[in-house]
Amino acid sequence: MRTSLHVAAFCLGALTALPAQAALPPQYQRLAELRAVLDHQGVAAALGGTPIGRIEFVRTDLYRVSAGRCHVDARIVGLPMPRGMAGARRFEVRVGQRVCGR
């Protein structure tokens, strides 16, 4: 019995010492990314203050924000997790060049 307790205590200690990163469920991660894109000052600046009409999910980590005849791509770039910390994915938004059509 004593040996079993020591083994269990050792295994539990080993597991808690490992770095962990808890991802948000996909629907909450997408919502966090959309909010970050909407809140990013560079998106509004790149679109010249024209109200946003649409945000399109292009593919993982890439959104297209449209306003009037113009759009910008907003890329989600993952950031490293500080050593020893766990939590949701850390990221930043990087805004591309404005593209305008007819």
Structural description of this entry:
This protein has helices at 2-17, 26-39, 41-46; strands at 54-59, 62-67, 70-79, 90-95, 99-100. The radius of gyration is 21 Å and the shape is elongated. The chain has 3 helices and 5 strands. Mean pLDDT is 84; it is low at 7-12 and 14-21. It is 35% helix and 29% strand. Strands 1, 2, 3, 4 and 5 form a 5-stranded antiparallel β-sheet that branches. It is an alpha+beta fold. The protein has one domain (21-100).
What key phrases describe this protein's structure?
35% helix, 5 strands, 3 helices, 102 residues
* Inertia-based shape: elongated
Mean pLDDT: 84
Structural class comes to alpha+beta
Order of SSEs: HHHEEEEE
Number of helices: 3
**Integer count of domains:** 1
Rg, rounded, reads 21 Å
Q: How many strands appear in the DSSP assignment?
A: 5
Helix content: 25-40%
The share of residues in extended strands comes to: 25-35%
**Major sheet, described briefly?**
5 strands, antiparallel
Detail the poorly predicted runs: 7-12, 14-21
Distance between the termini: 78 Å
